[in-house]
Amino acid sequence: QVQLVESGGGLVQPGGSLRLSCAASGSILHIHTMGWYRQTPGKQRELVATIDYSGNTNYGDSVKGRFTISRDNTKSTVYLEMNSLKPEDTAVYYCNAAMEFLSGRFNYWGQGTQVTVSS
Questions:
Q1: Is residue 63 classed as helix, strand or coil in its secondary structure?
Q2: Are 49 and 63 in contact (CB under 8 A)?
Q3: CA-to-CA distance for 46 and 52, rounded, in angstroms?
Q4: Are the beta carbons of 80 and 48 closer than 8 angstroms?
Q5: Are 103 and 49 in contact (CB under 8 A)?
Q6: Distance CA 50, CA 66 (A)
């Protein structure tokens, strides 16, 4: 069974920092791009950041310069370091991974982790 398990969300004050982690498990041959997206009620899910297997990154405009995505391919894990957090960063954050199996390539989502930025 394939899983993406997220951790690290919570409540933080404006200006603070949080680190999210997402670990993939299962009979995975290869993990291509991994990434983080976020969603607030009534809005579409939006890109936060992605990283490919080689470490090339892409960021949403609203988080550039504040968030850093990284991955550890030996642990099948992607991280999101979030600094200078703002109330507008409050959202459910979802991990995403494009993974290769014997049966083909599929896209998976994690269950989501809540990040709340508030004083």
A1: coil
A2: yes
A3: 18
A4: yes
A5: no
A6: 14
Bridge partner list, 3 = 25
pLDDT string in tens for the chain (119-residue length)? 889 999 999 999 999 999 999 999 999 999 999 999 999 999 999 999 999 999 999 999 999 999 999 999 999 999 999 999 999 999 999 999 999 999 999 999 999 999 999 99
Inter-residue contact 50 to 60 (CB < 8 Å): no
34 touches 96 (CB < 8 A):
yes
Q: Which residues contact 54 (CB under 8 A, 6 or more apart)?
A: none
Closest CA to 84 of 8, 17, 18: 17
